[in-house]
Fold:
Amino acid sequence: MSPSLRLWVLVVSLLITLVVVQILRKGRVPVKYSLLWFLSSAVILFVAIFPGVLDIFANLMGFKTISNMVIGIMLVILLFITISLTVIVSGQKEKIRLLIQEVSMLKKKVDSYEDEK
Amino acid sequence: MKNKKIILIIPAYNEEKNILRVYNDIIKYNKANNTNYDVIVINDGSRDGTSQICKENKIPTINLIHNLGIGGAVQTGYKYALKNDYDIAIQFDGDGQHSVESVKDLVEPIINNKADFVLGSRFVDNSKENFKSSLARRIGIRVISWFIKLVTGKRVYDTTSGFRACNKEIIRMFASDYPTEYPEPITNTKLLKMKFRFKEVHADMKEREAGKSSIGSWKNLYYMVNVILSILVYGSRRYK
Structure:
């Protein structure tokens, strides 16, 4: 890994950390969900400091080039994150449906009481 | 027949042109035949005058505070039916394509304890066929029917019919669990899988009187793929 590339990777890692800290402070995301992003920025930082580990892993897993390995692994990780987000969104949709139904039924009841008055 | 509490669940989305006539037809029918069908309109967040019309004419209505789609709207009706202790719930379209005269044919097998669920169908009795639907639609319904037969071993003809009656046990089940999308073919599959007594009877259906049905060919393909996949998913589940 060339020195300039290492510098870039370092910058990206710091940037992710900064962004996550910022949205945490603003309360836009709970700590629970930020852990994943801190972890990924730590991994990137580790790679910038010890680029040699990438070679070892690429050899072990049979990748011809390091970049293929990095892109491949990232793709799989992002895929799983997306699947879990789909599950989360579906669950929320279900809860919203329940809320709309219950509130609407209550509203009908309240309206009928008000009409009687 | 008199002692059973019966309710018609009428989902309505932008049906200002139809809803009053549909309601009046039911009231007229009740008077003429000494029946006692209650009505609950589920106004699924219509953007037109549906809710005003219902209010002005004192039609029993639940106005959903946000659009939920057909599955969520109909399920609200089943929840209402369960809360108010109805014995039989009938799903009935708000656009005037179902006729009140056929309701008794759907209700009868349940009252006589011959069925748990009755589907109003355009296709069981071909001699009475008076509903002209497009070829593509017929083929679509055939294909869905074939897949339902594949996973349940039973033949349902009018798989997408939204004219259906069910007993209390199924009301309770629908109130707690009802598919949001493509509810008709999916619930047909599920009920057959669960070995409920399923009956399909002839029902008169008219062409839509006002408003238009949303049909686009890509949408249809997407619909078919989703429905078939859902049937296979439900078919692979085990009940009891």
